[in-house]
Amino acid sequence: MALNARAKALVAEGVDVVNFTIGEPDFDTPDNIKQAAHLAIQSGFTKYQPAAGLPELRRAVARKLAADNGLDYSPDEVLISNGAKQALYMTMLVLLQQGDEVVVPAPYWVSYIHQARFCGARVALVDATGTLDLKPTPELLKAAITERSRALVLNSPCNPTGVVLSRDELRALLEAALEKDLWIISDEIYEKLVYDEAEHVSSASLGPQVRERVVTINGLSKTYAMTGWRIGYAAGPPEVIQAAGRLQSHMTSGADSIAQRAAVEALEGPQESVEEMREAFDERRHLLVEGLNELPGVSCLMPRGAFYAFPDCRGLLGRSYGSRRVENSLELCEALLDQAQVAAVPGSAFGAEGFVRFHYAKSDADIKKALERLGNFAAAGQD
Ligand SMILES: Cc1ncc(COP(=O)(O)O)c(C=O)c1O
Q1: Could you give the CA distance from residue 339 to residue 322 in angstroms, rounded to a whole number?
Q2: In 90-172, beta strands by DSSP E
Q3: Looking at the domain covering 2-28+273-379, what would its CATH class be?
């Protein structure tokens, strides 16, 4: 956030910064969705609605989960929230007590850590930063679980790594977690952004015993380019969803009525734009990752999902760039911003020192410009 603020300040001063900090699609929300929102406003759909979500949206989500994910949830087992972020937070507030532990694979999306702490919980990391493919393994997971562990957060496709867990990998992790009776919070917000042979598998689809312990988190931000509309959802066992709904009713009285009408259209209307955006991301993924791998000192796995590239930049550390000595990923990102006008997020923010997160939700022209600047920056490094 700090680097994003600095990048924005530079842009305000007229500096041409290529900003890779905030991960959101650069596409506009499809027109049919916007029109549904217009219609909602014009028809006066502007009043309080049920706190757990519009009944028609809860039904639309239940239908989507059945059709896309092979999950059988009734609308009562679905909570609509202000973005997946709030759905996650409501879920954690329901499942966690003071002193409980949440098990989180690293590299992780940074909000899991803060949300868990807001709940008074501790975080136990499954450190996958040293594995070749940045994937958590059942062995690492078992080693992280303690007597106090209560929930495991899974995020496939993953922000920041782009890792997509296969059915077998997911099953092995779930088995290890269920052996210890953990709840599973399965954040599947990037499910539609998978590439090559990768397939998204929903945790809760792996059998009835698993389903009983899983809360599935998802939302419309990434799939439908709707980050500003703030619609996400949780689906899970009724006692969890009902408790989360009661909490939400006192916190926010539920999500925005107009955005919820638009979300029904997003889920039930034409879906072509989802595939069009995915294909565009796929092309940019190659452009960015292949370009990053040509940089001296940088090595990047090909992500199979989401829209992030997470190169290992340790080869750029321990060097000087201009007057700056760069020893860690934060200093590297600061130097990149000041000297190459490229804003990216240090891996330390995701529990992975030495890495840097870029995203490819950017135009080809921006990606090419950034790669050229990165090339000049890397070449200028001195021991
Ligand atoms: C892994 C992950 N989960 C959840 C979210 C939150 O999405 P929303 O906009 O629905 O709150 C994000 C957004 O960046 C994300 O990257």
Answers
A1: 8
A2: 101-106, 122-127, 149-155
A3: alpha beta
Residue 205 Cβ inside 6 Å of ligand 1? The answer reads no
187 within ligand 1 shell (Cβ under 6 A): yes
Atom of ligand 1 nearest to the CA of 219: 10
289-312 pLDDT, tens per residue? 999 999 999 999 999 999 999 999
Q: What is the pLDDT of residues 137-164, one digit of tens each?
A: 999 999 999 999 999 999 999 999 999 9
Any ligand 1 atom below 6 A from CB of 232: yes
List the residue whose alpha carbon is closest to atom 7 of ligand 1: 84
From the options 2.40.37.20, 3.40.640.10, 3.40.50.2000, 3.30.300.20, give the CATH code of 31-268.
3.40.640.10
Residue 118 CA to its chain's centroid (Å): 19
DSSP bridge partners of 214? 184
**CB 216 less than 6 A from any atom of ligand 1:** no
Q: Tell me where in the chain the CATH 3.40.640.10 domain(s) lie.
A: 31-268
Q: In what order do the strands lie in the sheet with 122-127?
A: 78-82, 231-235, 214-219, 183-187, 149-155, 101-106, 122-127
- CATH 3.90.1150.10 domain locations along the chain: 2-28+273-379
Mutate to test the pocket of ligand 1, among 21, 29, 221 (most ligand atoms within 8 A of CB): 221
